[in-house]
Amino acid sequence: MSRKALSAPLALVALTMIPGAAAAADAAATSATAKALAYPDTARDDTVDPQFGVDVADPYRWLEDDVRVNPKVADWVAAQNKVTDSYLETLPGRDAFKKRMTELYNYERFGLPTKAGTRYFYSRNDGLQPQSVLYVRDGLKGEGRVLIDPNTWAKDGATALAEWSPSEDGKYLLYSVQDGGTDWRIVRVKDVVTGQDLSDEVRWVKFSALDWAKDGSGFYYSRFPEPKEGQAFQSLNENHSVYFHKLGTPQREDVLIHATPDRPKLNNSAVVTDDGQYLLVVSSEGTDERYGLTLHPLGKPGAKPIVLVDDYANNWQYVTNEGPRFTFLTNKGASRGRIVSMDISKPARLTQLVGENAATLVGASRVGNRLILSYLGDAKSEARMVALDGKPVANIKLADIGAASGFGGKSSDPETFYSFSSYARPTTIYRFDTQTGKSEIFAEPKLTFKPADFSVEQRFYKSKDGTEVPMFVVMKKGLDRSKGSPTLLYGYGGFNVSMTPGFSPTKLAWVDKGGVLAIANLRGGGEYGKAWHDAGRLDKKQNVFDDFIAAGEYLIAQGIAGKGQIVIEGG
Predict the structure, then answer these.
(1) What does the pLDDT average to over 445-473?
(2) What is the CA radius of gyration of the chain?
């Protein structure tokens, strides 16, 4: 099925909100459904893979090819889209939604700034650009200038600027190119002053952090072995290894730093420590946040790596270090997270700096001589500032019910930036000074609507087994709810992903037309830490579906939605 076809159920529910459209909806839907079912034939081949002694047929393997390489796949996608488009074009009210969505998308958007030397790097989208543009300014109040505009890279707008990282002095920018939605990256280096790319180019990079050596001589990255000819999109994600690339040298001379041939399925990602004395490699298998940690001393040829954690049982996030004493965020011994320190000579001994509490600790960073801790309190963002030894300093006041992210920084600078958004409030960027404790707006969008016209509530309902589950409910103020309202119920419940308040122009268009948006925080996510995640995975997966069903039952019982007025979505 083409991706566009997934929009059809939502569009059908939307018909009931368009004056005069409901009567035509039934006939249109019946006709459209008949057309939509007439899918083109899909060729099958005789591909068979032996799995544990059993032959498993895979007749559609050919569809895994890239549409830009295999004409048969391109023709299949075009035929599928033709069917989908012919269905969607019959839906009344579609043009009205398209018009409103376009208006709501058309606002200036900024990304979080990164400071390097005296320069500030940040992304900006003027409203309807397919890809955001990367800007740089000299000094906090300097005039921004375009450094990279990925909109010029491809006519279809599908080639994107992915990860990027400036060198410590802001002289160079390390950046990666993502072509057509693939996970593969091409990594390049740009001279910030001239805007010209250096000769350096690194390929076969995927699932990688990009981090500079402190002296700017090169960078660390992770990649897979080069696939066989024509197998770039079929090769297995195995033997992920960390390399060092020295500026001005070809990729074939890159130095292998860390590999795990005995465990080929591990992903290995590397970060340079605050003091530049170590390279910390974080290893994991699959999507669960259960890590191993290996420390490589830098500038000490022949020094053996130090294994800090090798049980792959818990989440570990590097926060900072003072020489051999490292600070981490972990859920070891604390389902909702805590801050601990360890001496790398005795990594099994942990000293607690900040203990577990009712809110879930989801992030921590060092800025100047402070630690900023990011929490989820019932799926809403909270931020607190503590001293390096964990003693409380102050809570950081946020604008409303919403989601805050960022707070990155350096031990040498008290300045940091964070973003804040909510269901009816697009992202605003704030600058925060850890010495004064004050926030100020760095960048905010001009809007074509009033956030005050919408209400954002948080409610709690009981699931099948009695577990209390939170849910956000968004609607337009003054909405007539006497007969219930068409309601979009969204849920996910997996992979430790938390459903936090965030702005979506498409979903706000739904609410703006009189619909209700409900987002349930199902088990399997990370809203309440490791225990909440584990309660919705493996043999507990049924809880996710029970939570979702209970959310719909609650919406009907409360009169928010009537029977037959709920459409569900998740992804």
Answers:
(1) 95
(2) 25
Give the residue from 272, 289, 321 where a domain finishes: 272
Whether the Cβ atoms of residue 129 and residue 121 lie closer than 8 Å to each other: no
How many independent structural domains does the chain possess?
Answer: 3
Total-model pTM: 0.83
Q: Are 148 and 175 in contact (CB under 8 A)?
A: yes
Buried b (16+ CB within 10 A) or exposed e, 136-160: bbeeeeeebeebbebbebeeeebbb
Report the distance separating Cα 339 and Cα 324, nearest Å.
17
302 neighbors 312 (Cβ within 8 angstroms)? no
Structure confidence by residue, pLDDT tens digits, 350-359: 999 999 999 9
Q: d(Cα 204, Cα 245) in Å, to the nearest integer?
A: 13
Nearest to 327 by CA among 336, 310, 339: 339
Tell me which H or E stretch contains 57.
Answer: strand 54-57
Which residue type is seen at 460?
Answer: F
Best CA proximity match to 370, nearest among 432, 317, 325: 432
Last residue of a domain, one of 216, 250, 272: 272
Q: Pick from 453, 446, 443, 570: which is nearest to 512 by CA?
A: 453
At residue 295, what is the residue type? L
Half-sphere exposure of 399 (CA within 13 A, CB side): 23
Whether 176 and 74 share a structural domain: no
Same domain, 172 and 266: yes
- In CATH, what number is assigned to the domain containing residue 500? 3.40.50.1820
Q: How far apart are CA 358 and CA 378, in angstroms?
A: 9
Residue ranges making up the domain that contains 13: 3-92
208-267 tens-digit pLDDT: 999 999 999 999 999 999 988 877 777 788 999 999 999 999 999 999 999 999 999 999
Q: At 489, which helix (H) or strand (E)?
A: strand 487-490
